[in-house]
Every structure is written in structure tokens, then in C-alpha cells.
Design goal:
10 strands, alpha/beta, six-stranded mixed sheet
């Protein structure tokens, strides 16, 4: 692998095809791929390097054998809650993650199995072709944590599955299986787990061997739908990080650590 990717510590890289780069998330500790501060930053940065990489025509993003991504680790979340500087830094990284994927000219294929939560899910659902195992568990966990559904949800869920379904799953933090996600249009395809990696490779290779200008320009034009939703995304992300300063986020993280139901304050100032 070229020096372009040598600085990344939370990914491993391989090439199932000379023009296909496969990124496997991992290295932050834990078999379910929690996203620590380093991986969060790298998930935002890497799309600029891919965009500038003349050796890559398409990308596969995947996780370990048991999980795509389990979301942010508790240490990073507590730092966001407690420290303004950390909160401002992670807000910028979360914004860059979304817009760098949207603006990356190379088509991205995600292959999601097991739990898909948090920053990993951002990339998984913003991928140009999202493929999930039938038994994958897609969860936008924000309201369960006590913050607004920022990240990617507002920019893409209503476009993918409609406003009614988006509200149901995002407000209630309901889990969506891979099979159900395909049925409602949240992902491009759902396949049996055993077929997931081969299907992702097949799609990525077809994209890599296709007419590159035509594919990249088509992606650019289609992603104007997401760019038009940019103000809604910006508002959701700002409200998410405002929520990290309040009591609901503190109760949300405490209940996760203590493995109990949250007891959120019964009243809200808003």
C-alpha cells in the first residue's frame, strides 16, 4: 500500500482489484469496532486522500468479522460532554466526515454486518452503494444517548426511506435489520452474511472498471440532493452538540455504562 495511507492507524487496507481499495475499520480496541477519537478523525480525513488517489477508482468500506461499527466509545463521548475544546473539535470532524464523503469523487461501497452504529454508520449509509447483511443491526442511537440525531441522519434518512419512516426510527431509536433496511430503501441491497463480501467486491469492481468520468459526474450530480439538505444537516449537528452540554446526555451515557434504562428528566426547557 502506498505511503498515502501509511499514517492511518485505525484501518487496514487491501486491494481485491488493482483499482479497488478496501478499508477495514478496526484497531481502536474491542471486537465490535468502537470509534475512538483517532478513528473518528481518520474517518473524516480519509475521503480526501481517496479523492486524490490516482490508483483508486472505487472503495469498499467494511468492519470486522462480527461488526461494522459499534459507535463512539464512552471515553470520547464523556470528553465531548466535559470539555468545550473536545466538543468543538469533534463537531468539526463530524461535519467534515459527512461533507467529505459527499464530495469524494470516487464511488464508495459499504459492506455492513453485525451492529452498524455511530460514525461508522455515517459512512455506511452515505456510501453510494450500501450493502447490508440481512441480519445486520442498523441503529441511530442518538436520542437513546440523550442528544439530537445529528451525524448523517437528517441529511440522508428522509431521502432514502421517507420522512415517516425516518421519524419512526430516529425518534424511537428502533433497530433496523439489514433485510428491513432494504425493504424501506435505507440501503441499496441486503444479502446473506456469507455473500456480503463477495457482493461488495463485485459491485466495487464493476464501478472500478466502468467509465470513470461518467460514473463520477453522475455521483456528483446525484449528490446535489444531499448538498441541498446541507442546512438541515448543519442544524441537526449543532443541536446534537448543544445537547452534549445538557443533563440528558449525562444520563444517557451513565445509563449505557451502568447497563440500565435511562431516567431522563421528565420536563424539557425547549
Amino acid at each position: 500500500m502506498t505511503d498515502r495511507y501509511a499514517a492511518y492507524t485505525r484501518f487496514t487496507f487491501d486491494r481485491p482489484h488493482p483499482k479497488v481499495l478496501r478499508i477495514t475499520m478496526g484497531g481502536s480496541g474491542g471486537r465490535l469496532n468502537p470509534v475512538d477519537a483517532t478513528m473518528h478523525r481518520e474517518l473524516g480525513d480519509i475521503w480526501r486522500d481517496i479523492d486524490a488517489d490516482p490508483d483508486t477508482n472505487s472503495v469498499i468500506l467494511t468492519g470486522g468479522p462480527k461488526a461494522f461499527s459499534a459507535g463512539g466509545d464512552f471515553g470520547m463521548i464523556e470528553e465531548i460532554i466535559d470539555d468545550f475544546t473536545a466538543r468543538a473539535r469533534v463537531w468539526k470532524e463530524a461535519r467534515d466526515l459527512v461533507y467529505n464523503i459527499v464530495n469524494c469523487s470516487k464511488p464508495i461501497v459499504s459492506a455492513m454486518r453485525g451492529p452498524a452504529v455511530g460514525a461508522g454508520l455515517v459512512a455506511g449509509l452515505l456510501a453510494d452503494v450500501s450493502i447490508a447483511a440481512n441480519d445486520a443491526r442498523i441503529i441511530d442511537g442518538h436520542t437513546r444517548l440523550g442528544v439530537a440525531a445529528g451525524d448523517h441522519a437528517v441529511i440522508v434518512w428522509p431521502l432514502l426511506c421517507g420522512l415517516a419512516k425516518a421519524k419512526y426510527y430516529l425518534l424511537l431509536c428502533e433497530t433496523v435489520s439489514g433485510a428491513e433496511a432494504e425493504r424501506i430503501g435505507l440501503v441499496s441491497l441486503a444479502v446473506d452474511d456469507a455473500a456480503l463480501d463477495a457482493k461488495a467486491e463485485e459491485v466495487a469492481i464493476r464501478l472500478a472498471e466502468g467509465a470513470q468520468s461518467a460514473i463520477r459526474w453522475t455521483k456528483y450530480a446525484l449528490n446535489n440532493w444531499l448538498r441541498m439538505a446541507g442546512p438541515s444537516f448543519d442544524a441537526s449537528l449543532a443541536l446534537e452538540f448543544l445537547g452534549f452540554t445538557g443533563p440528558e446526555a449525562r444520563e444517557g451515557i451513565a445509563s449505557h455504562r451502568e447497563k440500565r434504562r435511562p431516567a431522563f428528566p421528565p420536563d424539557s426547557p425547549v
